[in-house]
Write a structure and sequence with these properties.
182 residues; alpha+beta; seven-stranded mixed sheet; 7 strands
Length: 182
């Protein structure tokens, strides 16, 4: 299945699709920000232009855009990293399968694992990938577990009223059998 998943950098022409995905109820429930097209441009334009250090990609399944995924170095976001106990040499990732019809098919774990392999760990500075889905986002937590991430701890970020599960994958797991085959 992994050969059917690919990634391409997000471009400004993708902003209407990104806005549609971010507004979809199954994504908005966890993303907590309603973005109109102007807000998408304000938030993601600097990322697309390389001004902000978050790298955003479109997830494609058999060349059809189905969602988005992004990565960043935690050293570029020290306050959030501190709350997660993320090491400076670690990276974070976020994603959503925006097309509702493509959820529940096992594409999330495949996208996560392939993205970490192909893109994130291609950067030699990255020793681990650490992310923090909400504890009630069972679909996301299952996807990360199936991709080989392990539970690290629970946190409640400043200003939030819910807990997050911090999950991680160390680079060394890419070379061993830490990952259940999907």
């Amino acid at each position: 299945m992994s050969s059917f998943i690919s990634f391409r950098p997000l471009s400004r022409s993708d902003f209407p699709l990104l806005q549609q995905w971010m507004s979809a109820p199954h994504v908005a429930a966890w993303w907590h920000e309603s973005l109109d097209l102007e807000s998408v441009d304000l938030k993601y334009g600097p990322r697309v232009d390389g001004i902000e250090p978050t790298h955003v990609f479109v997830i494609e399944h058999t060349k059809r855009a189905i969602g988005w995924i992004q990565w960043y170095l935690w050293s570029d976001y020290p306050e959030h990293a501190r709350q997660l106990s993320a090491e400076p040499a670690s990276a974070g990732i976020d994603l959503a399968i925006g097309e509702l019809a493509m959820t529940g098919l096992g594409l999330g774990p495949v996208a996560i694992l392939e993205f970490v392999r192909q893109i994130v760990f291609a950067d030699p500075r990255v020793s681990a990938v650490i992310t923090d889905p909400e504890e009630n986002n069972i679909r996301s937590l299952r996807a990360f577990k199936k991709a080989g991430f392990t539970f690290a701890n629970m946190v409640q970020l400043e200003g939030e009223h819910f807990q997050r599960r911090v999950v991680r994958m160390d680079r060394k797991c890419m070379d061993r059998t830490c990952i259940d085959r999907i």
